[in-house]
Specification:
This protein has 14 helices and 22 strands. By secondary structure, the chain is α+β, with helices and mostly antiparallel strands. Among the domains are: about 90 residues, Nucleotidyltransferase, domain 5 (2-Layer Sandwich), CATH 3.30.420; about 120 residues. Helix 2 crosses helix 3, helix 4 packs across helix 14 and helix 8 packs antiparallel against helix 9. The longest helix has 18 residues.
């Protein structure tokens, strides 16, 4: 039997799964520090090796390397978010240029070493993340990255369809299912018809809003004002707003590394000279220069998860003399993400419109991905379809397992 593997290369986390000879699917567990992990953080860390050449670590090992010496490290996160952006061609790390494809390939080799003769099916979102994303470019780059990692014949499949394949095993008969797959950078929706003879895709929709967008809202409302957002500085005696773009970059994981550019830091320091609260901008510079972003994002992600279980949670973060200790009510958080929720709702309706089906025609709704656990997100579906039609499970592994099942179906079709 040809080995069949599914890989969910995600913005925040990545997972691989293998189809077993008896038809079961098993998530590949990766040894990390004496533990066996299903989920592998999508992150690289570079440091200077012998002779100044860059050395790297991936996944949890990258985080450990970064925390040991953040000032001497370069942390690369959210690589998937750049795939559809033509403006990103390469980045220089310790004097050496790396294309995006090369960075992703380094990560993929650590996650899943090449296995000659195996069939690999990788996931892709319905719509890639980014402003005016180029989906064709993103898919080509993704294929190139897998080829550079030793997988030249990689198949691609839509991530929500993969999650649907896994869910189909729980169905007792024919059904029309809406699948919602919520990642770190994108949210994707597929309407699928399951029959005993196979699966038919009826409609798709995707949008570049997901977990990272919700993190952004927390940072933007709670942290950035302490760093000078909404303050003013003076040009020839005239008050001017401090550039909002700095806080947009600071609050988004995949843009923070770009703010370490000397020009950006010089601009912030220059504005601080005439700012109403210069100490806030100096704190912003310190957080960027001293690579405190990862610790901040981890704290923000933790409070977001806590708000899924409780009506209020506290964001606690400290870096040297900068500290945040802020209570956040779930109602406030839901107000901040209201624009994102509206766009998610529109994407759900778009998938149904493409399928030419009313809400009443959906038999079941399957939700996967960590953001599907946010109560306000779940209410989007309860309002449209009723709580009794909703199902979930395998929030972090269902896409990878479904990709392996798609690989099985494709292998049978081509036999």
């Amino acid at each position: 039997m040809q080995p069949i593997i599914g890989i969910d290369f995600g913005t925040t986390n990545s997972v691989a799964a293998r189809l077993l000879p008896d038809g079961r699917v098993e998530t590949l567990r990766i040894p990390v520090g004496g533990e066996m992990l299903d989920v592998f953080r999508t992150v690289l860390c570079f440091g200077a090796g012998p002779g100044g050449a860059p050395r790297h670590a991936a996944g949890p090992a990258a985080i450990e390397a970064y925390l040991e010496d953040p000032l001497a490290s370069r942390l690369i996160m959210s690589m998937k978010s750049y795939l559809a952006q033509r403006s990103f061609t390469e980045t220089r790390i310790f004097g050496r240029g790396f294309t995006l494809e090369a960075l992703i390939a380094l990560f993929l080799r650590a996650l899943l070493p090449a296995e000659p003769g195996a069939r690999l099916v990788a996931g892709r979102p319905v719509r890639f993340a980014g402003d005016m994303p180029d989906d064709a470019l993103a898919e080509a780059r993704l294929r190139t990255a897998f080829a550079e990692a030793g997988w030249p014949q990689t198949d691609l499949a839509l991530e929500p369809e993969a999650a649907g394949y896994r869910f189909a095993r729980m169905l007792g008969g024919a059904a029309t299912v809406l699948v919602g797959d919520f990642g770190g950078g994108t949210s994707d929706f597929s309407v699928l018809r399951y029959e005993p003879g196979g699966v038919t895709a009826l409609g798709h929709a995707g949008i570049g809003i997901a977990g990272d967008s919700f993190d952004f809202r927390i940072i933007d409302h709670v942290v950035s004002p302490l760093l000078g957002r909404n303050d003013s500085y003076r040009v020839m005696g005239k008050p001017m707003p401090i550039p909002a773009a700095w806080y947009t970059g600071f609050a988004r994981w995949h843009r923070l590394s770009l703010m370490r550019a000397p020009r950006v830091l010089r601009d912030i320091a220059e504005v601080a000279r005439t700012a109403d609260h210069p100490e806030r901008l100096h704190q912003l510079i310190a957080l960027i220069e001293e690579e405190a972003g990862y610790a901040l994002y981890r704290a923000v992600s933790g409070v977001k998860a806590a708000l899924s279980c409780a009506p209020e949670a506290t964001l606690s973060f400290r870096h040297e003399d900068f500290a945040v200790e802020a209570g956040i009510a779930r109602t406030d958080f839901e107000g901040w993400i209201a624009p994102d929720l509206a766009r998610l709702g529109a994407a759900i309706d778009s998938a149904l419109a493409e399928a030419r089906l009313p809400h009443e025609a959906i038999d079941r709704v399957f939700l996967t991905g960590g953001t599907s656990l946010v109560p306000a997100v779940r209410r989007l579906f309860e309002t449209r379809f009723g709580a009794e039609r909703l199902a979930g499970g395998g929030e972090f592994v269902s896409v990878a397992e479904g990709l392996a099942l798609i690989g099985q179906a494709r292998a049978r079709a081509s036999a």
